[in-house]
Structures are given as C-alpha cells and as structure tokens.
C-alpha cells in the first residue's frame, strides 16, 4: 500500500531500525552495476547519508564515508564500477549538475544522488528513487521505492520489493 503523497508506482518497505536500513543498503549494493542511479530523497535527517554510507561500505568494506554536503561529490574506487556519492542539497539551479560532470557518471558509475529532485528534468531517464521517511518509532524508517525506467524496475524485482 502506498503512503499518502507517494507515487502510485511506489512500493513501501518498513525498516524497523538502522540495522534494517543498512541491510537494505547492502542488498541493493550487491545488485548495483555501472549505470545504475539511485536517487535518495527525504527530509533532512531522514537517513539518506546513512543509507549511502551503508551501501558504499557494503561494496568496498569498512571505509570512511563523509557526507558530500560541502564537496557535493565523493567518488569511491574499488573492484568494479566506481561509486559517485552526490549531494545536490546546496544547488540553486538544476543546470549546475553539469558542472559536477555527473552526466558521464550516469553511464560509467553507480550513482547515489541525495536530493535528486534538484536535477529538475536534467537527470537520467532510468533511475530508482528511494524516498526515506520517519517510521512509527524514533529509529524506524519507511523506504518508498519508485522505479523510473526499465532498469529501475528490474532492480526492484531483484530486491523483491513490491
């Protein structure tokens, strides 16, 4: 069932605590490949950076993952596709994404994009939106997945979401 305000194509997954959020990030990290774009939406404090940190650590092992709020982009190299962790919160105009070189990463990297709504029509055609929202308890969350293309649909099926 969709929560109020969610897209009709969204599928909701309750996350009881941080460990459940990290486990979901790990499952998604195991499936991701070059060209996969995951947009992390939600209010401040919803858990976007925590999710990205767990995703990156699941792919690369224990590593420092600072928030890219001020640098805007952090790139992580390891075995396989590089991971671009992007935070668009501070952008004023959607065209500014091109100054980051992000369009090249759309094809050759795994992109984790916080605040994807800041791309406002300049983003990729195929991406998976993961909207995080507070759950019923202090540490719980709701993850709403909305596929925006064929690969995003495939990822949802592989995750067994929906």
List the helices and strands and how they pair.
Layout: E1 11-15, H1 18-31, E2 37-41, H2 48-60, E3 73-76, E4 83-87, H3 102-108, E5 110-114, E6 127-134, E7 141-148, H4 150-159
Parallel strand pairs: 2-5, 2-6, 4-5
Antiparallel strand pairs: 1-7, 3-4, 6-7
Helix pairs in contact: 1-2
Which structural class do the helices and strands define?
alpha/beta
**Helix content estimate:** 25-40%
Strand order of the largest sheet: 1-7-6-2-5-4-3
Please indicate the percent range of residues in DSSP E strands (runs of 2 or more).
Answer: 15-25%
Write up this protein.
- By secondary structure, this protein is an alpha/beta fold.
- It has one domain: Rossmann fold (3-Layer(aba) Sandwich), CATH 3.40.50.300.
- The protein contains 4 helices and 7 strands.
- The protein has helices spanning 18-31, 48-60, 102-108, 150-159; strands at 11-15, 37-41, 73-76, 83-87, 110-114, 127-134, 141-148.
- Helix 1 (18-31) crosses helix 2 (48-60).
- The longest helix has 14 residues, at 18-31.
- The termini are close together.
Characteristics:
seven-stranded mixed beta sheet; 4 helices; 162 residues; Rossmann fold
Overview in brief:
This protein is of the alpha/beta class and 162 residues long.
């Amino acid at each position: 069932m969709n929560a109020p305000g969610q897209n009709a194509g969204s599928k909701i997954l309750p996350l009881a605590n941080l460990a459940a959020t990290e486990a979901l990030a790990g499952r998604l990290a195991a499936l991701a490949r070059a060209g996969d774009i995951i947009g992390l939406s939600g209010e401040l404090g919803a858990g976007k950076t925590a999710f990205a940190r767990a995703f990156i650590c699941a792919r690369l092992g224990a590593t420092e993952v600072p928030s890219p709020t001020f640098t805007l982009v952090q790139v992580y190299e390891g075995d396989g596709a590089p991971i671009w962790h992007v935070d668009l919160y501070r952008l004023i105009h959607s065209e500014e994404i091109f100054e980051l070189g992000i369009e090249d990463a759309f094809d050759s990297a795994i992109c984790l994009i916080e605040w994807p709504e800041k791309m406002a029509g300049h983003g990729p055609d195929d991406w998976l939106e993961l909207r995080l929202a507070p759950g019923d308890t202090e540490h719980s969350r709701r993850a709403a997945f909305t596929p925006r293309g064929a690969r995003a649909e495939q990822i949802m099926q592989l995750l067994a979401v929906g």
